[in-house]
Specification:
- The chain is 61% helix and 3% strand.
- The chain is built from 14 helices and five strands.
- The chain has helices at residues 2-19, 21-29, 42-58, 79-96, 99-114, 135-152, 155-170, 192-205, 208-222, 246-263, 266-286, 305-322, 325-345, 373-393; strands at residues 68-69, 73-74, 292-293, 299-300, 370-371.
- Strands 2-1-5 form a three-stranded antiparallel β-sheet. A two-stranded antiparallel sheet has the order 3-4.
- Strand 3 and strand 4 (299-300) form a beta hairpin.
Length: 394
């Protein structure tokens, strides 16, 4: 049935592209190579990306953010990604001298406060889907609340974040993983992206339960690491867990990096470097990355724009740590590629201008024909990294 539904989705979307001029122009642009598009000014690209996130907030009946699909239009708000978009909106607004994204971030944070569950968590999926509280999603909302608190000094944000963090620690399994209260009910290494906000919250509140939970999970994660830097149990599916997507690989590595800095842990930092450098060299050699990689780092499927942006951010962080030119060059080269893809999106319907597609081409398997808000969030973060790096070079 899933294959049939997918075939129907492809058929409808391509048929729509035949009759809709902007969509047809977008499809034509995506027939070209990943690196084959014009590159705008970096600040222009950043402003356009943030413009998409603002529209993603404005399109609904609440202050959360949805995503645009070429055929289905705007979807419902997604608490998880709204949460971690908050620090991006704040940093981008401050960088651009633009108050609108900062105000949007605080509205999003207020909305998240209003939908916190009685157990302290936030639901998986999008609003209206009646899903239970999920550890990973809740941790990403914590990121947003901590950024809102740093900006506003409003204690409500810390109170809500601490209640959420204690819930996360309280539902942890004895081996350090999270299963029952996580997506698909399985343990995954990308929960390093849960550990990092727990450690941040610990640094603010001094609640040792949060630190203990993070460190326990990190030990479980390191046990999943292979000698070549690849991690088992890394995909956000069960069927394809043998070849995870770059999106969840990057979650894992970025979470490890944040934790390595907060804990001053060289073992964690080495785990980041081992995995990130494999993908960096693949990108520098071939000019693009596949969407999935198996345990021998063999790639399959079209590039994931979200994963590409996240990896650029990780390379930037490693450049900060080591000063290595190749990490800087990988960041700048990848952001140039992504700016080109963003520029191609300007040919499509106006609602998606400034966004990145889930995959390149837009009909790739990950988030096909869609423009997930989280991909554009990470693109904006990567652009901020590139802006800072370019300023340092000067």
């Amino acid at each position: 049935m899933q294959v049939i539904r997918s075939a129907i989705d492809y058929g409808r979307s391509f048929a729509f592209g035949l009759v809709d001029g902007p969509t047809r122009a977008l499809f034509k642009a995506h027939l070209g190579p990943f690196q084959g598009h014009d590159i705008p000014e970096r600040k222009t690209a950043l402003r356009n990306a943030i413009g998409y996130l603002l529209r993603a907030q404005q399109q609904g009946s609440d202050a959360g953010m949805g995503s645009y699909h070429l055929l289905k239009g705007w979807g419902a708000s997604y608490p998880e990604t709204t949460g971690y978009a908050i620090p991006t909106l704040i940093r981008s607004g401050e960088h651009l001298g633009w108050h609108v994204p900062v105000e949007a971030a605080l509205r999003a944070a207020e909305w998240l406060l209003s939908i916190q569950r009685a157990d302290g968590g936030w639901p998986g999926g999008r609003v209206g889907e009646a899903r239970p509280s999920i550890v990973f999603n809740t941790a990403q909302v914590i990121r947003g609340l901590l950024a809102a608190h740093a900006l506003s000094k409003d204690a409500r944000f810390i109170v809500a974040a601490l209640r959420a963090g204690r819930w996360i620690a309280g539902v942890q399994d004895p081996d350090g993983a999270w299963r029952e209260h996580n997506f698909l009910g399985v343990a995954r290494v990308y929960d390093t992206y849960v550990d990092a906000p727990l450690l941040h919250l610990f640094a603010i509140t001094g609640d040792g339960v949060l630190k203990a939970a993070a460190e326990k999970n990190l030990q479980w994660v390191l046990a999943q690491r292979r000698p070549n830097g690849w991690f088992a149990n890394c995909d956000n599916t069960i069927r394809h867990n043998d070849r995870p997507i770059t999106h969840t690989i990057a979650y894992t590595l970025d979470g490890l990096h944040e934790c390595a800095i907060r804990l001053n842990d060289d073992t964690l930092m080495q785990a980041v470097t081992n995995g990130a450098d494999v993908l960096l060299h693949k990108f520098m050699d071939h000019g693009e990355l596949n969407g999935r990689y198996d345990e021998d780092w063999r790639g399959t499927e079209h590039p994931l724009m979200t994963g590409c942006a996240q990896l650029a951010i990780i390379w930037s962080k490693l450049h900060d740590h080591t000063g290595s030119a190749i990490h800087r060059d990988g960041l700048l080269r990848m952001t140039d590629r992504l700016m080109g893809v963003q520029q191609a999106s300007m040919l499509g319907p106006e609602a998606m201008h400034g966004a990145l597609p889930g995959s390149y081409p837009v009909w790739g398997r990950y988030e096909k024909f869609a423009f997930p808000n989280w991909g554009t969030k990470y693109f904006a973060d990567a652009l901020l990294c590139a802006e800072r790096c370019a300023a340092l070079v000067k």
